[in-house]
Amino acid sequence: MGIPRKTLRRSIATAAALPLLIGALASCGYGAEAEKNDAPAKNVADDAGKKLSASEVRIGYFPNLTHATALVGIQEGLIAKELGSTTIKPQTFNAGPSEIEALNGGSLDIGFIGPSPSINAYVKSKGSNLRIISGSASGGVKLVVNPDKIKTLDDIRGKKIATPQKGNTQDVAFLNWIGTKGWTVDPESGKGDVSVVRTDNKVTPDAFKQSSIDGAWVPEPTASKLVSQGAKVLLDETDLWPDKKFVITNIIVSQKFLQEHGDVVEAVLRGTVKTNEWINANQDKAKASANAALKTLSGKELEAGVIDPAWPSILVTDDPLAGTLKTEADWAVKAKLIQTPDLNGIYDLKLLNKVLKAAGKPEVSDAGLGAK
């Protein structure tokens, strides 16, 4: 799905998104095992006199470039500044299911997450546990291959191609693409005209190095890590989307927290909107900030040879690109991974549109899937 790749206006994954919703697809996320690390609480009380209805807000996100809004917004204090005396308690996750579990269990209030686990959780709870309240990022997914074995898209047939997780966003997109070629693959086993190998993004680079796979349909920075090992980008998923945009990360909230602390949610959204604006206006500084945040969270920053090509392929955006989420869900149905889901009410963009209007920015659409 094709994104402007020079600027991360265009900015900001093991990640992502759309594994949807079958009960069997309980593990839908950005493709890593559920590891959670609590980052130190951080706040910037420039507006110390500002009192909101909650003393703290627990925000979850992944240490991935596709979660740049969270990485940069927290690193630079842009979200905390809007919260005044309300403290941010950040929590990092490596998989969507663990973040959803935290949200459902009451230990998380707001999360940055891919569309698939959002849909999965919403449908399984019959619409009772979360709402999508904003977009965050688009794009940043590529098909990268061993150029010695694969030179054209037709050469994919008969090869072993990795995706992060069965039914996750990249897996669904790849299965849909395979279908457009007239090839067939069993969605459960991954066997067929192409061998779809479900591999944790953290393991994929080693699998590629050992020739266990011939390529991968993966999010950034995994795609650029593979390129640094000799892989070649054969297809950017953004090129498959009519408007070159598709949701890779959105922001969700516990419905209970939204109902009880709407003022805090609104303040967080003011912070994310300002963060995205700052990222798009300060590409180099934002990239450095995101990398500094990754170093703090994981102990290691991305090398220039990885982050430099990865960063401009991701677009940070307030728009949840709701229409593309519906399309991704349709792809999962077509791939026989899920039954047709009822997504009515999954979005609640009222606070976001209030923030956007106050900032002089255009409102965004829920594609008819908004809460009444």
What does this structure look like?
- The chain has 372 residues and is α/β, with parallel strands linked by helices.
- It contains 13 helices and 12 strands.
- The strands form 2 sheets. It has a 7-stranded mixed sheet, sandwiched between helices. It has a 5-stranded mixed sheet with strand order 8-7-9-6-10, sandwiched between helices.
- Helix 5 crosses helix 12 (322-334).
- The two termini are 30 Å apart.
- 56% of the residues are buried.
Structural class based on helices, strands and sheet pairing: alpha/beta
The backbone outline, from C-alpha atoms, is: globular
Number of discrete helical segments: 13
Mean pLDDT: 88
Q: Please tell me how large the radius of gyration is.
A: 19 Å
What is the helix content? 25-40%
Oligomer: single chain
Largest sheet: 7 strands, mixed
Taken as a percent bin, the fraction of beta residues is 15-25%
Number of strands: 12
End-to-end Cα distance:
30 Å
H and E string: EEHHEHEHEEEHEHEHEEHHHHEHH
Unreliable stretches covering 5 or more consecutive residues: 1-49
> Strand order across the biggest sheet?
1-3-2-4-11-5-12
List descriptors.
alpha/beta; disordered N terminus; 13 helices; about 15% strand; seven-stranded mixed β-sheet; about 375 residues; single chain
Secondary-structure blueprint:
Blueprint: E1 36-38, E2 56-61, H1 68-75, H2 78-83, E3 87-93, H3 96-105, E4 110-113, H4 115-124, E5 130-139, E6 141-145, E7 160-163, H5 169-180, E8 195-198, H6 204-209, E9 215-219, H7 222-228, E10 232-236, E11 247-254, H8 255-260, H9 262-281, H10 283-298, H11 304-310, E12 314-316, H12 322-334, H13 350-358
Parallel strand pairs: 2-3, 2-4, 7-8, 7-9
Antiparallel strand pairs: 1-3, 4-11, 5-11, 5-12, 6-9, 6-10
Helix pairs in contact: 1-9, 1-10, 5-12, 7-11, 9-10, 9-13
